[in-house]
Amino acid sequence: MTATAGNRGDSVRSDCFVQIAKTEHHATEIRLLSKVESLFGDSIRELCHEVLTHYNLRNVLVEIEDKGALPFVIAARLEAAIRRLTGTDESFLLPIETKNLHRTGRDRTRRTRLYLPGNNPKLMLNAGIYGSDGIILDLEDSVAPDKKAEARLLVRNALRAVDFGDAERMVRINQLPAGLEDLDAIVPEQVNLILIPKCESAQQIIQAEERIEKILGRENTDIYLMPIIESALGVVKAYEIASALPNVAALAIGLEDYTADLGAQRTAEGRESFYARSAVVNAARAAGIQPIDSVFSEIDDMEALRSNVLESKALGFAGMGCIHPRQVPVINEGFSPDEQEIEKAKRIVIAFKQAQEKGLGVVALGSKMIDAPVVKRAVHTIELAIQSGKLSTNWRENHE
Amino acid sequence: MNEDLIYNAVGRLVPSEINGEPVVPFMGVGKYRPEGKKHASAIPTNADYPADGNKQVASLKEALIKAGLKDGMTISTHHHFRDGDLVANMVFDVVKELGVKDIRWYPSASFPCHAHLIPYLEDGTISHIEGSMNGPLGRFCSDGKMKKTAVLRSHGGRYQAVQDGEVKIDIAVIGAACADPFGNANGLNGPSSSGLLGFALADSQYANNVIVVTDNMVPFPCVPWQIQGNHVDYTVEVEKIGIPEKIVSGTTQITKSPDRLLIAEMTAKFCEATGIIHDGFSFQAGAGGTALSIGIYFGEIMRRKGIKARFARGGSNKYLVEMLEEGLVEYILDGQTFDLEGVRSMRDNPNHTWTSPFTSYNYHSKGNFAGLVDVVILGATEVDVNFNANVVTHSDGKLLHGLGGWQNCLFSKTVILPIPLFRDRIPVIVDEVTTLCGPGELIDVIVTERGIAINPLRKDLIEKAKDSGLPIRTIEEMKEEAERICGKPKKPVFTDKIIAAIKWVDGTVIDVVRQVDEKKTEN
């Protein structure tokens, strides 16, 4: 009996391919072929023994083709092969990186979220350094059906081991009900937000949330949800979905599937999706959450991306998906406030603070009264400006 | 041999003798003072050469025989054709055919195409290589299979060694895209165009016998004459000296790697923030993907600021040529041409001028161009917390690259190494480099995707970068981060056998490479 996991081939980096076979008559043997043998060979073999001991496995032949995989990858690949070989659903967990314990807020900035294929460790290692507001470990479309199980373990280990910096750690699970199994693996691992693809009803959100609370064994107070609308029916139900639960933090649209569902072609002008995009923006804003736009797939055309972002912002979206790190700065910039917006927000916030200090109930800028939502938006604009490096944190001192 | 070991000025244990000849251990930058006269070849007389100037012989074999080929000689070749070179392989096919043994091969660089020579290293036709060794030749040498100790020199160090008589070349074989029967030659015209022939300059001036080989023989005069026929003994026409698509191949693509692009962008931002990029400045960036991207970011900055560079040092390629033609760069001082656009520009544009290791790099001369460059962008396989860098071996101790012009470029006003913090699982910033090729005092800035470290000696740069908003960190912090991500690697265990010596630009020995003890390393 033999089981395998992981990736092999000339272009594979930072990954390994594991094959485990039961051998009735021989003692356990580890055959390691590693490009970092002289530097990490011993520690890889040690880790392998530790995993085998954890699963109480004897009399196996383990073959590892290593292309410089980090321990969290090797452990995930070994575990996946062992699960396949023995049918166990027991986990092997390495210590958690303490930086990964940070939680995020419901209304935090979500201009950019960088998609990372869930079965490709190479792209995960530096994902946190490109300045995206969030990273998405994707278990859905970027993972082949026969790789779903091993990707789930890799993503789980990445959530524990990889320092993604200040980025919000998101996972896109598979379409329900298959996605429920993904939740079992990732919910205990400090995930910040879960994307639920191809949403068509509030019931699906509630179903996911029930599973999350069951896994947590408590009320869910810190894992946010971002449903993705990808069908005509989803667009019709957008508000119902957006307002299904208080921890739904954002509503995204996926145009590739949506246009296919319509039977329309995706065009550069995007007239075929104008209604859906506006409907999603409207539903999200009505529910008081962030509307998030689809990805832009021409990674070499930065000018087209820039105009796409401007249009998206004009429609009312708060952010977009990124399929390549190079898109991050362009999208961040596009969804950040410009100089005029910042200046206006500064005046409003200062007027508000002055009114507060004077104990005034009403805020006025010049002769104009300012409502609470206007102040709220100004505060948000200032936060965004600070985050995107356009304003220093002590701007008020310099201003006054 | 090698029993008499001495710690040199950078604390490396090096021998006082290599291949039976005494060597000077590295004494510190600028500390070694050469004595005596330059080397000179025998005085020739026109009486010995054909009155009609026709030095052409029927074959390379005939030329080598006439040049007096015999056991123990030194034969030099050059890497103008890079991985498309056919000349070195042809030369040693003849040497083998003639049963001559123990040749010291003195190439300006070797490439994977020279794996053809491995059987000749095995059977003793070639005793050893003094020059770079990459790919299969590097592995052969790393495995301790070469009869004698390899010696690695920089491009400038190669010129210096020839000029000083440290290496006496018996026969130089110069492959040229175009030549005339008298021996005038250039790299500009013909199917094997490589741009220039600068690496062969020293050989043409100092070797006892000079053979020019071409696949494009033209009637006298071949102009421009990058190599002067007055230095040449014999000329040969063969069918083919290079594979054009491999001459201009490889590293001349802009990187698509997001990490490298980020490093390139940070490097350019650093140069802008610290004022290195100013009107009339000069720069040198290599041909690697990251370096190419840095050049493009430089261009964007210059356009935005409305300034231009006085000159850029090549390796030239189409991107640098575009900058020259756009007027962003006034002159290209070219050391080697990486693509056909570079060749075209050098041929047609008087502001695209060819240089040689003599003009650009030779440390035993009255100054060279390397020191005139404001900023140079270089690579490294490893850098340590004292800013010492390695370019020839990897962390596993195996010899994999040559020095190129790397050591020579360290004399530029600011030296920046844009490198990843780790490659796969191998930390690039380490406690101590495996092989020390360049002393930390000459290396100013390390740019990684996770932060920028400035050499504490460069207080001026630290001050200027202070408020740049760039992630300035200490090199120790970056080393620790690399180890936190990758784990702390084990060090390879070495035997006492020295397989290669690394020369500094002045001919002193800065480090040696010892053979990896495979058994103890993998226990």
Automatic annotation (TrEMBL), chain B:
It is found in: Cytoplasm. Its EC number is 2.8.3.10, 4.1.3.6. InterPro entries: Citrate_lyase_asu, NagB/RpiA_transferase-like. GO terms for molecular function: citrate (pro-3S)-lyase activity; citrate CoA-transferase activity. Keywords: Cytoplasm, Lyase, Transferase. It catalyses: citrate + acetyl-CoA = (3S)-citryl-CoA + acetate; citrate = oxaloacetate + acetate. Gene3D superfamilies: Glutaconate Coenzyme A-transferase. One of its GO terms (biological process) is acetyl-CoA metabolic process. GO terms for cellular component: ATP-independent citrate lyase complex; cytoplasm. This is Citrate lyase alpha chain.
